[in-house]
């Protein structure tokens, strides 16, 4: 199975020099998005993103949501994003007010019936090839955005 991770980070680098594998685009917000072909849990995906780039993707508005969907029209399996439940509220993995200047990080589009707390252990969020977010157990092995 080919798995993908989607990452988001600020960049001042030459885009072609960063693209060694996968797909990349640079929107006008000076953020770069990458697919990386690796299978991991949410925590592993977050660690990988932080080590190699900045963090898992934060979908902070509908424009970014549509951009991600246009880049990855063939993804129809689960894909991790940077959203998680810290026990009291849903938060994005990428914290910090400077990251959200001129935007909001409260953008959420839940799938029907989500979040549902079915297993009481669903603390991380994935997508399913369309712009809906679904909770998953963080140790679930999944595609990643």
CA-based gyration radius: 14 Å
Distance between the termini: 15 Å
Task: Give the ordered list of helices and strands.
Answer: EHEEHEHEEEEE
**Spans of at least 5 consecutive residues with low confidence:** 1-21, 98-105, 130-137, 140-145
What do we call the CATH homologous superfamily?
Answer: Mannose-Binding Protein A, subunit A
- Kindly state the percentage of residues in helix: 10-25%
CATH overall fold name? Mannose-Binding Protein A, Chain A
CATH architectural type = Roll
Total DSSP helices: 3
- Overall shape: it is globular
CATH C-level class is Alpha Beta
Q: Please report which band the strand proportion falls in: under 5%, 5-15%, 15-25%, 25-35%, 35-45% or over 45%.
A: 25-35%
Oligomerization state = single chain
- Would you tell me the structural class of the helices and strands? alpha+beta
Largest sheet: 5 strands, mixed
Question: Quick check: average pLDDT?
Answer: 60
Integer count of domains:
1
Number of E-type strands: 9
